[in-house]
Amino acid sequence: MSEVLVVVDHVDGAIRKPTLELLALAKRLGEPSAVLFGGSDVASAATEKLKAFGAEKIYVIDDAEIKGYLVAPKAEALQQLVEKTSPAAVLFVSGYEGKEVAARLAIKIGSGLITDAVDVEDGGVTTQSVFAGNFTVKAKVTHGTPLITVKPNSTSPVEEAGAGAVEEFAVTISDSAKKAQIVASQPRQASGRPELTEAAIVVSGGRGTGGDFTPIEGLADALGAAVGASRAAVDSGWMPHTFQVGQTGKTVSPQLYVANGISGAIQHRAGMQTSKTIVAVNKDEEAPIFELVDFGVVGDLHAVLPAATEQINQR
Ligand code: FAD
């Protein structure tokens, strides 16, 4: 069976959930092999988890030559690995970096690329949800090694151990790939809340908050949830874009999504409509979000949320 390369997304060796989802999808196409950029410190933290979620092989690429630069060296390293292993496909997490590395690799190896897939079937047929979920496109790469970026939360990770054989893969990075260097980077602000795309519960706020996210954050903390926002809230400068849920933000698929002061525009739905249970609080009983919900509260979020938070905190 051919191997399928999964490019690992991690923070200092902590594997992010979307990578585990990719391992589950890779099993449909062949034998999953993880590709991990990082030194020995990172590798030791990461390999057990990759193995536990199905990696048969783990290629560790020492990032001493790669760290500190933008994405070009990674694409060059992957080109060398693809040329050596001739995989059935290469899967990336759909994100700024994943998509750029995949695009550069596609040009280098002359392969077809599919971005933002939400499913990958046996045989390499992908599903994309486009125009805010109005159309579903089935597509397949017809030339070269299929390169596919997959949106987080497209499937669930499967804890089924693989062989997890670690192999160090030496790469040679050219000077031309090192033309753009990172000169400063700001650490992510630790909020103590789960990552938006990985959270089991998401509590979101929209224009109806009037810019005051205190009730949203209060309920989120009572439930151990991540905070999300509509584009209206982001465009108003109330929350950073990293919090935006929707067509031009993040796609979430938690067990519980609580939409507060959000009307339910199609572009917002595109990012949350696959949530398992949807609750909305909106003062307008005609708001379109109520067409989608399992449980709706017609009321002012500034009254409903503090009352709900208080009840939850008392338990
Ligand atoms: P509104 O539509 O203004 O709704 C506010 C709601 O709050 C209303 O239903 C109102 O009844 C309710 N409300 C007001 N006060 C209260 C209160 N005190 N208590 C309870 N309820 C209250 N949007 C996204 O969210 N994500 C995207 O990724 C996204 N991408 C887009 C991409 C494109 C190309 C375009 C054209 C648009 C996109 N949008 C996106 C914008 C989208 O069309 C909507 O404009 C946006 O989602 C509206 O945000 P909202 O629901 O917070 O605001």
Automatic annotation (TrEMBL):
Keywords: Electron transport, FAD, Flavoprotein, Transport
A Pfam family hit: ETF
Electron transfer flavoprotein alpha/beta-subunit N-terminal domain span: 4-186
Annotated residues for binding of FAD: 207, 230-231, 244-248, 261-268, 282
Transmembrane regions listed in the UniProt entry: none
Entry note: cofactor: Binds 1 FAD per dimer.
InterPro entries named in the record: DHS-like_NAD/FAD-binding_dom (IPR029035), ETF_a/b_N (IPR014730), ETF_a/FixB (IPR001308), ETF_alpha_N (IPR033947), ETF_asu_C (IPR014731), ETF_asu_C_CS (IPR018206), Rossmann-like_a/b/a_fold (IPR014729)
GO biological process, one term: fatty acid beta-oxidation using acyl-CoA dehydrogenase
Entry cofactors: FAD
Cited CDD domains: ETF_alpha
Gene3D superfamilies assigned: HUPs (3.40.50.620), TPP-binding domain (3.40.50.1220)
GO MF annotation terms: electron transfer activity; flavin adenine dinucleotide binding
Function: The electron transfer flavoprotein serves as a specific electron acceptor for other dehydrogenases. It transfers the electrons to the main respiratory chain via ETF-ubiquinone oxidoreductase (ETF dehydrogenase).
Subunit structure: Heterodimer of an alpha and a beta subunit.
Assigned protein family: Belongs to the ETF alpha-subunit/FixB family.
Name of this protein: Electron transfer flavoprotein subunit alpha
